[in-house]
Amino acid sequence: MNAKRLLILVFLFNIFIFYSQDLGKINGRLILNDLDSKESVSQKTYVIVKSKTYIDSVKVDSNLKFEFTNIVSDTIRLYLSPRSYPNNIFYRFYLNKGETKNLNLPYSPNCPYGKSDTCPICCKKDYVIPIVYGLIMNEQGKEADMKNYKSGGCVISDCQPKLFCKRDETEF
Ligand SMILES: [Zn+2]
Q1: What is 7-107's CATH superfamily?
Q2: Strands of 14-63, DSSP E
């Protein structure tokens, strides 16, 4: 190898070191609301990371951890697939030069609502009323008496609470 080639190699290596020091890292872990689902979540859940110049995805490991390396400093969006219930949450944060971001992300693989008609706090049904979405009309076509219902608003999704405990002011 002649001296000129060696010089070029040293030069390229220095550039590599210079840039790699600037690259960031994301370490994270999913925090499950339901530990029974740990195995199935670890088998099929992907984490997707996007910025203007970067897109990558990894499957979580058996401990629900994941890692992304060599990321250029930028605004990062992170998504989970399958999504977490009840909302299709994505996370957005700024990754600084050379930063290692540690994330603990709550993850709920199933819709937590509609599984029981008993309040999860007092374990009773006597103060439980239905939550109704949209405008509620009675038989005369007037707005219904809301004492026996709770209004859930107008936005309807496939995962939202169905019942409300008036004692504990809890939706479930
Ligand atoms: Zn209750």
Answers
A1: Immunoglobulins (2.60.40.10)
A2: 24-32, 46-50, 55-59
